[in-house]
Amino acid sequence: MGLLLPFYLYAESLGELIDLSLQNQLIKSTEKNIDSIQSQYKSVQNKYLPKVTIGTTYSNTNEETATTPDSSLISYANINFVAYDGGKKSAIYDVYKNNIKSASENLQSLKNDISIQVVRHYFNYYSLIAQKEAKQKEIEQLKAQYKRLERFLDVGTATSDEVDKIIARVENANVALHESELSIQIILHNLHYLVSKNITLDSGSSVKKIEFLEQHKRSDIKALEYDMKTLLSNAKATKSSNHPIISINNTFNKYNLNYKNQAYQNNAIDSQNIFKVSLAWKIFDFSSTTNAYESVYKKYQSLKYKYEYEKNKANIDLQLTIKSFDISKLKIVSAKLALKASLATYETIEKKYQNGLVDNVAYLEALSEKYNAISFLKKAQYDLEIKKANIIYHSGKNVWEFIQ
Asked: Which of 11, 23, 65, 88 gives 240 a disulfide partner, CB atoms 3.0 to 4.6 angstroms apart?
């Protein structure tokens, strides 16, 4: 018992597995990408603020004139601001806002994708464990029958072909057992990649019962929607260069002019302020801007078609998932009836076999059907949990919020 305790302490439930997976390197990488876009957006915003520049210049000449003193020190302060840029600024802001929203929705989509993968691995793992346990019990019974027949073979009341059939069944069951063990190891490795650590699973988790889920757009569909808006804003930014640009500039100069000729010195000024308003309007560029705008706008139209396709596909996927869930419930009912029938059949045939009324072929078939029915029922029950998670996923909800 003491040896098992450390493993129990470190066993993770399904909810804990999902929590770990949502902190893996792929999630962190995506989060850093969003941080990068947000920093770029702040940088662009700052570029559109008024620019203030200060500077100073010292000069010395060997030939003084009225406009060129012997030596001078000129300091200045300049403020420059683009008052209107044809709407480019607001369009660029929209580009970054939509990029950030798209990246955030892609992050949400990634989290849901990883969560549904963990859910599938978790329940497939326990389905395989049930299959493995059923196969182990079948092998135990087959080996017990083998020992029994071996004694009968020694006294001549059983034939060698009966024993050979048991041995063949044991070997086949062992192969199936090894295949189950391999599949279990593959699942554990896949979970290791997702959660970034070696794990031991804790049984008992389930997906909350689904009563009614209002359908929302999946995050990947929302991300496409924001990508469309990004392209449309890009098109507007491109087209804005056809509009006038108004700039405001103010420069204050402070002069320290040293003339040798006093006549020049008396006429020198100490300071000067220059205020400018400039307008620039590109009225002809051989349709360069128009062609660039059409290029970006066609990309927007292309993505819009893809968006409509993916949105319709998502609706169909949800309907198919709901249908699959309904079928899974019927499978459980069918599996329970099949198990009840196979247990009754096995009990009857086992008694007849012990009394020599049926051969071991009928007995072996009944034994296999019994354990296949047990594992099939477990598989159907675990598969229903996966189907519930699939409905949550395709309904646009967060899978991890429905784990218990």
From this structure: 88
Indicate the angle between helix axes 160-195 and 88-155, nearest 10 degrees: 160
- Give residue 150's pLDDT: 78
pLDDT at 196: 86
Classify residue 98 as exposed, middle or buried by CB count within 10 Å of its CB (0-12, 13-18, 19+): buried
110 neighbors 223 (Cβ within 8 angstroms): no
Burial of 165-204, coded b for 16+ CB within 10 Å and e otherwise, reads bbeebbeebeebbeebeebbeebeebbeebbeeebebbee
Spatial distance between the Cα atoms of 107 and 113, rounded to a whole number of angstroms: 10
Q: Please, which residues have CB within 8 angstroms of residue 2's CB and are 6 or more apart in sequence?
A: none
pLDDT at site 158: 63
- 51-84+245-280 maps to which CATH number? 2.20.200
Which tokens hold the place of 68?
């060129």
Among the CATH numbers 3.40.430.10, 1.10.3210.10, 3.10.290.10, 1.20.1600.10, which is that of 5-49+107-244+288-402?
1.20.1600.10
Q: Is pLDDT above 90 for 251?
A: yes
| Average pLDDT score, the chain | 91
Beta pairing class for 51-60 and 71-84: antiparallel
Q: For residue 361, how far is the Cα from the chain centroid?
A: 51
Mean pLDDT of 77-102: 95
